[in-house]
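Hello,

Our lab assistant flagged a job as stuck in the queue for most of the afternoon. It eventually completed. Since we weren't sure the result was trustworthy after the delay, we are filing this so someone can double-check. Below is the sequence as submitted and the structure that was eventually returned. Let us know if re-running is recommended.
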Amino acid sequence: MAERRAFAQKISRTVAAEVRKQIAGQYGGSPQLFKNLNAGTLTSNTVPLTEAVEPVDFEEYLITHPPIVESGPLRDLIEFPPDDIEVIYTPRECRTVVQAIPEEGDTDPHVRDCVRSYTEDWAIVNRKYHKLGTGFNPNSLDKQKERQKGLPKQVFEADELPDSSGYQDDQDDLKRRSMSIDDTPRGSWACSIFDLKNSLPDSLLPHLLDRAPNEEIDRHNEDQRKTNRHRELFALHPALDEEDPIERHCVPDVPKEHFGQRLLVKCLSLKFEIEIEPIFASLALYDVKEKKKISENFFFDLNSEQTKAMLRPHIQTAAISTLARSAIFSITYPSQDVFLVIKLEKVLQQGDIGECAEPYMVFKESDANKNKEKLEKLRSQSEQFCQRLGRYRMPFAWTAIHLMNIVNSAGSLERDTELEMSLSERKGSWSERRNSSIMGRRSLERTTSGDESCSLTGFRPATLTITNFFKQEGDRLSDEDLYKFLADMRRPSSVLRRLRPITAQLKLDISPAPENPHYCLTPDLLQVKPYPDSRVRPTRDILEFPARDVYVPNTTYRNLLYVNPQSLNFANRQGSARNITVKVQFMNGEDPNNAMQVIFGKSSCADFYKEAYTSVVYHNRSPDFHDEIKIKLPASLSDHHHILFTFYHVSCQQKQNTLLETPVGYTWIPMLQNGRLRTGHFCLPVSLEKPPQSYSVLSPDVPLPGMKWVDNHRGVFNVEVVAVSTIHTQDQYLDKFFALVHALDEHMFPVRIGDMRIMENNLETELKSSIAALNSSQLEPVVRFLHLLLDKLVLLVVRPPVIAGQIVNLGQSSFEVMAAIVNRLHKYLDTSQDMHGRNSLLSSYIHYVFRLPSTDPNSPSPDVKSTSTGPGGLGGSVHYATMARSAVRPASLNLNRSRSLSNSNPDISGTPTSPDDEVRAIIGSKGLDRSNSWVHTMGCKSAPWGSSPGSAPETMQAMERCGNRMSSHTESASFLQTLTGRLPTKKLFHEELALQWVVSSGSVREGALQQAWFFFELMVKSIIHHLYFAERLESPRKNRFPERFMDDITALVSTIAGDIVSRFQKDLELVERLNTSLAFFLNDLLSVMDRGFVFTLIKAYWKQVSTKVYALQNPTLESLRLDFLRIVCSHEHYVTLNLPCSLLTPPASPSPSVSSATSQSSGFSTHVQDQKIANMFELSVPFREQHFMAGLVLSELSVILDPDNEGMFGLHKKVVSVVHNLLSSHDSDPRYADSEVKARVAMLYLPLIGIVMETLPQLHDFTESLNQWGRSGGVQGTTVCSNGDDAEAEGNNMINQTVAMAIAGTTTTSPMSRPSSFLLNSQANRQHGSFSAESSRSLLICLLWVLKNADELVLQKWFTDLSVSQLNRLLDLLYLCVSCFEYKGKKAFERMNSLTFKKSKDMKAKLEEAILGSIGARQEMVRRSRGQLERSPSGSAFGSQENLRWRKDMTHWRQNSERLDKSHRSHRTRAELEHEALIDGNLATEANLIILDTLEIIVQTVSVTESKESILGGVLKVLLHSMACNQSALYLQHCFATQRALVSKFPELLFEEETEQCADLCLRLLRSCSSSISTIRAHASASLYLLMRQNFEIGNNFARVKMQVTMSLSSLVGTSQNFNEEFLRRSLKTILTYAEEDLELRETTFPDQVQDLVFNLHMILSDTVKMKEHQEDPEMLIDLMYRYCTKLMNVQENQF
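-- returned structure --
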């Protein structure tokens, strides 16, 4: 290796590969140790890192190792808290003041179930501490800012440097002051003395000159270092740049009523040219493209009180709900095709619409006086019509508003009186005049038709004045005609332009609806919260009829029916029938009195009526209708409920002996057909006579004998009936399923479903076929009734029905159909999925809705029910589960399907134990035997699992109790069966689910695998509910579940792990979902099951994956395993699961032989105690057994980072982020805030130190990239300019560096460069790929966290055991850490900021280019992915090997601020940069203090060993390197204190061995002596003085220090641009002051020598200043240089 990097000169070349060869003692701490040994050399107890060890039996361990601590934070580490899990019943938030429930009660079982489903509380499982898991890691940007509050501002010299302009003035001033005596000979002693006497010293450090024992100094230094330290290291470190972490499990949204985008429309006024009669208005939304009305009608009345009075005889007192003038419309699918249509009606009068509209077109308001008589006549006619015909309406006029025009035009345009209404380019009419902004024009340009996204949420409220209406045409009233008109409106040459308008003024306010509007009524007229005052005019919530299906489960009771009469054809009817109206009634019998008051009123009338009339088209025998009649359906319907239509001819002229209305026909629609609600389009025949008795149960299509029909019984009346109901599914398959389930509940046979009568003997077949047929049902109703449907399927599994004396097991059928439904939802509703592929509808069902049947908090205790004996106790067990998998079966029934296993698979034939055989075959040779396990499941009081044989008497008693229960059930089984059709024997859902899954095969198994998460989460919630309600969450975990359930879980995990391994190459998407689902499942099980058992499941998964990973060397599979590990380890009690309080003592080891066996792995120690320490720092078998999960994490880290494992190179970042994530989570966890607790947590990660030491050669070399931040070479005078800056740097320096070096008498090219001591191969010669800067930085911050929090005594003991080469490697690691976390300086942040800004502008230009078409965006993406995209010149400024930004959070604000004006942006940027610099400064300080703490421990450790010299030299190198970097004043104080203590303890180290480092130290101290910060100068002066003093004490002379200081000064003055002689002068004065006050050495020559040296230094300093002054005068410059060299020679001669 010809090329070695600068810092790689002085280190032992023992690299990782050699270390691994030298097992016999070179590096016992190597985490790679076991992996690379040959099988022959392994002891029987070692397990390679690639495999999982046998985990400790967690529950057993806790029993055998009771905690030593009674209470406190350490005690909490040992066991999960008692309140870890709870089941909370949260009342669901009701949107309305009163809950929506049927008024007439819930007699029907289906209605009862629906209402219960909509009103019962949410059953939520709460893991109280879940938020403390890593899935909710507070190391995100927002939370980090919270944790960073109150940080002290660290002072850095780099930030304190003044601006160059002001700085130059100061310099000139200082020069004048220092050379104030012009007549003094240049360079004379007098001048120096004068200047020094005039200088002020910095404050002296107290007790610096006192003699104190080294131990006391160390203790004092440590106390000083440990005060006011930042406790959370990761709060100072930027969060990793990653998307949502994979372990994040978002809580699903609460199921709630669906609303689209909401629009508030306020109707302000309606004014015509003439006011002669009341006008009634309605609003509705229409979608032209879908040809669908997308909202119900909103009726409003803007008539004056005087006009309303004309109708007084016909209108009772108006209900307040009908006085609404504002409405909220909901639009789920907004588009460019939505119109707001306004229709006007008036009271029926003689004459067609044209005649009635004529006065409105002819008369003008301005001519009122001229036409007074005519108007009076019109008004009196109107009053007569209102008196007589006030009940009837006629169509009058209409208009429409193109909704998106209003929303998109933020600017305002005055609408003309031309007929350019509703056309896309027509001018608007706004009440407010607004300037048309560019934004407004742009948005208008965008309003082309098409389904581009249209938002109704952000537009500005607009007041609209509509001035033109079109009169209705009697023969064009249908919706079809309306759609044609609306489509025509959007065309430029609209037919409507040519029509004569009715002039009027309708003012509307349109705005986005507020979040919680006050005084709002639902479509069912319920008051919405908040509703402070019932007397205020309300706003109506208008029901939406979505243009397309909406997939949202029902959550509230609603039961509405809309009847829309469309057309009538009486052309062939004889007799006079011309002014036709239809009276609509909802009847619950055939008597006229049976009309129900359920028809909603329109405007200014009562809430409900018994009938409604359609509007009349004058003299039309075949009218079209546009009415909408809204009906509140009764909850329970019978066969007698029907809608009755009565057709009347209305006599408009008042004649003698003429009735006002004459019935001319009748027809009806029965509401139920075969038990199902009838809706849809009907073309009904009309009878000329009143229907006969019992007509309501028949359809009018049936030709009743003796009845006369219009047009020979042909269909002449078209009507549409639409139901909006959360009771009626309107799906035949769902209806049949619910009907059968309720028939079972009620035990009422025969059941009539459709045309079938189902008897009890064929009920089982029908039930199974109806379950299977659920797959055929429409998806929309399935989703709407999803909660109820899933509840019923769960019920069938848990409480199998008894039909004809036999238990029918529906577990398999239910499981199959559940899998099918879940997959359908995933397939068709793929937009509503989270990052793990969990459908939001299903996850919210599990989280909020699902509960075990009858785990009602208000029900009696399950235990009471399960132990009730005799018939008296049976009432309780009818509806409630026993909460245990009881095998109590009535013996009197011939239960030929009853099996001890689970009885869920009727297709398995053979003996009662045959299902066991199948399970056994699936699991493999697990030796299951469930044939007699029923003994253990008889009720909750049976013998606990795993109990010793000694508890036989208890077992016998339990059996006796169960025997009694059996006999009592036997006696009353037939009674029970007839009572309910359900057996009191209940199954546990999770057990049944696990079994069904295990025995499933083929497409069913595949379906379950596709959505494994659903069944896993269902199982977990079932388990928790069962434990909670059986009060077994407190019971020992080993006793909670029967063995057969544990076996099913084992089999399930094993087979799914097999699927992951075998299918990952074929179907990666499925395998990724399966992998995360399994991981979350095991994570959940850790909270409720035997934790040792769950560990064995993890191990089983590990084993299967390991085998395949190392057979294929496939990084994809390893990546999947990392995801799995990360999720499992995100458990909130991860630390407790790792047994952090077990100290790997021999008894704590699972087997006594392990410790002794593994002691051979340590080549540097033979003592048992040392071995225990070694085991804590290695990934030894005892460590991995005891700390099972931490062992897996660190093993993965070690294996993936292994340089020999080249296939895994791409996973470095991923595996490092797993560790980083865990540690940052521990760091912020309030449970671990106590330092003692944190030390225990850190103990789990001690092997990390060894692992990082191993990876040292691969880490990113931060020492090389120190200048990437573009820092000028002058900051602290320590940075060598990069090549590009050389010329500029030389030009700026007053004295050429090379000249200065020659003068100083040194051949080193750059005395300011960093000390070199680092082992890393040069980039070109690396054998393996090195880590990215980001991964390296993350790994090093993890290392520092462990060093910061680990127990110092433990570290010290381990350091004692390390070899010299290992300790040196550790020091190299610390050296790298210093460079890695060096403070960048505010200027660097600003520079980087401008680079980022430039980069974003480049990207913007590229984006524009792509949009304009010169390069396709697709090509751009392809090019970038191939790495062909040229990097921006600023790319190198981010110091990363990966194509990544250095720190995402630095520029996160930029996206939002781009839009802001520049002044605001720059202001905000400044604050951001200040904050960044504050954080970075604190991180640099804390990181360096941790390094300093570690160095102190190393010094204490090696001070007693023989090989201390080489180690201490390394310590000094790290110290000097840290001084050379940008450091805060705080750190430098502690650093100088440590340096003084080190020199004090080992003076010979510096003055005899590490002479080069002595020179380095002098340079660093002198540099700090010229610092602008007084505290740094004070400490540096003290250190320099003590250095001279200690050098003197060794040999009555300090020649070495004299020479080094003099040389350092000359090079410093020559090379530093921002050097300030005034500050150095003050430090020299301080040193002089120390010498004067040092009583102990006053009698020696030391004070004089110090004075001589200081004066000499000062003269050199003065001459240098003069040289700078006379830069332009060559003769004077040469003269000064000569004098300068002479003085230097004198100094050097005097010192030897």
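-- support follow-up --
The delay was a queue issue, not a problem with the job. The result is valid. The chain has a mean pLDDT of 77. Residues 1201 and 1212 are 6 Å apart (CA to CA).
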